Each structure stands twice: as C-alpha cells, then as structure tokens.
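Q: What changes when adenosine-5'-triphosphate is included in the input?
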Amino acid sequence: MTERQGRMAAKILLIDSDAATLNWLKVKLEQESYVVVTARSGDEGLGKLEQDQPDIVVLDTVLADMDGLEVLRRACADERGTPPWVIVFSKKYQPQDIAAGFQAGADDFIGKRPGADAELIGKIRGHLAQTYARKPAPPPPPPPVNGHIFSFCSSKGGSGVTSVCVNVAYALAQVQPEARILVVDMVFPFGTIASSLAFDSRRTVARMTHEPTEEISRGVVEKYVSAPLKWGFRLLIGANDPQEAGNLDAARIEPIFKTLRTMYDYILVDFGRTLSRISLPIIEISERVLFIVTPDITTVKGAKLMLNFLRSRDIAFDRIFLINNRTVGRVWTTAEDIERELALKVNAMIPYEVEYMTMATNDGVPFIAKFPEHAASAMFRQVAQKLREHVQGVSK
Ligand SMILES: Nc1ncnc2c1ncn2[C@@H]1O[C@H](COP(=O)(O)OP(=O)(O)OP(=O)(O)O)[C@@H](O)[C@H]1O
Ligand SMILES: [Mg+2]
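A: The predicted holo structure follows.
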C-alpha cells in the first residue's frame, strides 16, 4: 500500500454526461476503495475540480454542455499548483482523437470499449503508486512575517489605480527580489487585474469567504493565491463576476487579510474607486493609502470628499500617499491646484503615456515590463522605492 493510500483514499472525479456510465464507473471505483465524485456536465466538473481537489480526473470528451477537451484545457491552464492527473475516457478513440486529447493536456487516454473498466483501474493504480512513492515530504511552512498592507484607491473610475498598483508591485519585485509580494484585486463586482495580466483563475476572495473551516488558515489562503507570476509577485482575485461578488461574505474579509499579513511582506490592494464595508476596515489597517488623482476638477473634488471621510475615520493625512496620474493628455488642473485643494503634498507624478499604457494592458503585461525606459516606469520605480524605504523604516 502506498503512503498516501495508507493515510487516506485517493479522490477521483468522473466527468461524464451519461448517467449509466457514471454509475457503473462509480461502483467499480468505490469497490477499489477510492472516493468518487461525479459531474454530469463540463461546468459542474470545473466546479468540482476546484471544490473537491481530486487526485485524478476521468473525463469524457463528449459532454452535454461543452467539449470535454475544453474542461481539460482549463484545468491545465489553472495557475495553481499541480493539476490533477487527467485520463480521457471516450467512445471516440481514433488516432486523431487520442492525439487531440494529449495535445489538450491529457495524461492518459482510454477508449470506451469492453474491458475498459479494468484498464482504467489499472492506470489509476499505476499512477497513484508512482506518484506517492516519489512524492517528497512537503517543505516546512515559511516562518510568519509581519506584512505591510498598501491600499490603492481613487475618487473616480479610470484614474489609473490598477495601472499604478500592478506596476508598483513589479517595480518592488525588481528592487527587492527576495520580498514576498502579493497583489489583491478588491474591485467589485469584478476587477481588471486578471485581464490586464492575462491571468485566469476561478479561485477568488469571494469564494474563499465560503471556506467551511472556522479559521482562514495559511493553508486555505495558499489554495487561492496564484503561483508566483513571472513579474515576481503573486495575485489574488476578488471576484470574477457580479454573481460571485454578490455572494461574498464580507465578515470574513478582515480575517483573510490578517492571515495574508502573516504570509507576505507586501500586500498591495487595488480597491479602485470605493469606500465600503469591505474596503474600509482594510484601508484602516493599511500602512499607507496610495490615493490616485487625475488632473481634472471633478476627480480632485471627489478626492477631497473621500480624504475628509478617511480623516474622520482616523486615517491621518500622513498615511496618504498622493499620486497625480495623467491618464489624459490635457491638463485642467495643475499639481499646485491639487495640493491647494486637498491640503496635501503630491508625492508622485505619473506622466501621460498616450496609448502606451493601454498597449501594455492589451498585451497582458505590466507597463514597466514593456516600456522600461519610459518616464512613467521611472516614476513607478520611485514609488516602489518609497514604499520600500517606509517598510524598512518601520521594521528598524
Ligand atoms: N499615465 C497614464 N498615461 C496614459 N494612460 C494611462 C495612464 N494611466 C492609466 N492609463 C490608462 O487609463 C485607463 C484606466 O487605467 P486603469 O484601468 O489603471 O484605471 P483604474 O482606476 O484602475 O480604472 P477602473 O475604475 O476601471 O478600475 C487604462 O486604459 C490605462 O491604460
Ligand atoms: Mg482598476
């Protein structure tokens, strides 16, 4: 018996639109003492894949709602951890079908024909024996850290909060490669960080708030945070769509951030244009609030209202880091006007980068990665440097 089987039975997810096949396979596999979860559609399968974290997926290619290979592609594209072992189990098993299955990411392919159940059980046993015999002991969890939260927000949509947040994260990772940096998209009902970095994940904060465990442990958080992206930071997405966002349990947001602080040195949170029961408690415990304004009077007036409100919540102005971002070419309000109106010093000016900023977004990369020599990139680095100095000053 393998080590894993000795501890607990392996979990197998069967995705097949045919009820008879599902029942037949379920009985066979349960006789082998595996835990079996079933799904009758691709969509249900994707949900259970995430919810049940199976060790192995047995997948039909012909499903009622989608091509089974689409399920496979999405499972393989998931940035989180090791994808499960996928065995395609299909009545279409011509050479071209098998080739398409492997191309989509299948680990094995079995044709639905007499004797296929025995073949399937053999493959499953073989795979589990190999995997768990080779599996190294998990590394010990890293020591807890006292992470610093930096909130990014604005008084008007489209001010550049996401652009600043993502690029500052990247710049921080460049100056401090050893730092554990997390970017959290807390824009609801859905944010744009995932699409601006060509990142796709169904693991969101909204879903995490429904974790059955009483405590949101580091282990739970680990399941939702992305693997390190090539730009040196990790990502956590708030919600992927309005329905998911509507189901979010706001009471669990603070406990989630408490746990995040024990895992990452820098937690950069994109709150977009919002002051809500979700964002306020986190803004209140933020080290700094990076407030983005654009040089137009409505944004500046809105910023004044928001900043006064923050002050009424005991967020002193010295915690506000004011950034003047030129999202548009024309300037209606100068930096001096802004400083006078807000009674605050502008800490950084991000120049207008015409269409280059949007070009980077359309390519799914941070602006600095694409245009490192541009003036805005130098400013993002400067902001990152200031955050770094602040954190170093705090930890001294
Ligand atoms: N300094 C800049 N120069 C040129 N374009 C910019 C600049 N900053 C941001 N942009 C562009 O302005 C648009 C809005 O930026 P971004 O999405 O970062 O703003 P946001 O405040 O996060 O918006 P939302 O309210 O949708 O979350 C994007 O198309 C972005 O590429
Ligand atoms: Mg945004």
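Observations recorded in class: The chain has 18 helices and twelve strands.
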